Amino acid sequence: MSQIAPQNIVILISGGGSNMAAIVKAAEQGGWQEKYGARIAAVISNKADAKGLVFAREHGIATAVVDHKAYASREEFDAELARVIDGFDPKLVVLAGFMRILTPGFVDRYLGRMVNIHPSLLPAFPGLHTHQRAIDYGCKFAGVTVHRVTAELDHGEFLDQAVVPVLPDDTADSLAARVLTQEHLIYPRAVERLLAAGR
Ligand code: GRF
């Protein structure tokens, strides 16, 4: 049997973790271990009560919490986060609803192997409240972008995008739900393409 170099994936979350769950299911159902030597090595949260941690544990995935409130500065938090991430020897660091601004040093450390999903059609609407901003702007279409992480917030090479219509009676919540459905399709797909390329 040929040996495939291991491709460990570390996923960072802050909340529900539905994108993380979509990636975990894609890995399980798509045989990523066999095809790409890939496994979800850990799910790490900055919040101990992040619901996604329960899902990860139920799927036999190692979890860790690095609580940002326990650190005096972003640099100290990021240093500890990097220490924990590196313990899982990551080929890919996947940000999935991880709601922290990252320091330049942290971004540099994982440059080329860290990806993010942002719920807008970048370069439109980087930052927070994307759905309300798209509605307020009168956008007829909204969407989601998977991109590599670089020092500039919500920038970096686009790996995939999906588009949804903005409907006349949309609220931020209804639009977010429509976009999230697409997130769950394109994020696993983008990660799988990186794994196939890195095999
Ligand atoms: C998603 O909309 C993601 O794009 C954004 O935060 C949300 C997280 O959702 N960055 P979940 O935690 O993956 O359910």
Automatic annotation (TrEMBL):
Pfam family, one: Formyl_trans_N
Gene Ontology terms describing biological process: 'de novo' IMP biosynthetic process
Catalytic site: H118
Positions contributing to N(1)-(5-phospho-beta-D-ribosyl)glycinamide binding: G17, S18, N19
One GO cellular component term: cytosol
CDD domains: FMT_core_GART (cd08645)
Pathway(s): Purine metabolism; IMP biosynthesis via de novo pathway; N(2)-formyl-N(1)-(5-phospho-D-ribosyl)glycinamide from N(1)-(5-phospho-D-ribosyl)glycinamide (10-formyl THF route): step 1/1
E.C. number(s) listed in UniProt: 2.1.2.2
Catalysed reaction, written as an equation: N(1)-(5-phospho-beta-D-ribosyl)glycinamide + (6R)-10-formyltetrahydrofolate = N(2)-formyl-N(1)-(5-phospho-beta-D-ribosyl)glycinamide + (6S)-5,6,7,8-tetrahydrofolate + H(+)
Keywords, alphabetical: Purine biosynthesis, Transferase
Binding-site residues, (6R)-10-formyltetrahydrofolate: R74, M99, R100, I101, L102, N116
UniProt keyword annotation of Transferase present: yes
Keyword Transferase carried by entry: yes
Annotated site residue numbers, Raises pKa of active site His: D154
SUPFAM superfamilies cross-referenced by the UniProt entry: Formyltransferase
GO MF assignments: phosphoribosylglycinamide formyltransferase activity
UniProt function note: Catalyzes the transfer of a formyl group from 10-formyltetrahydrofolate to 5-phospho-ribosyl-glycinamide (GAR), producing 5-phospho-ribosyl-N-formylglycinamide (FGAR) and tetrahydrofolate.
PANTHER family reported for this sequence: PHOSPHORIBOSYLGLYCINAMIDE FORMYLTRANSFERASE
Family indicated by similarity: Belongs to the GART family.
This protein's name: Phosphoribosylglycinamide formyltransferase
UniProt source species: Malikia granosa
Designated gene of the protein: purN
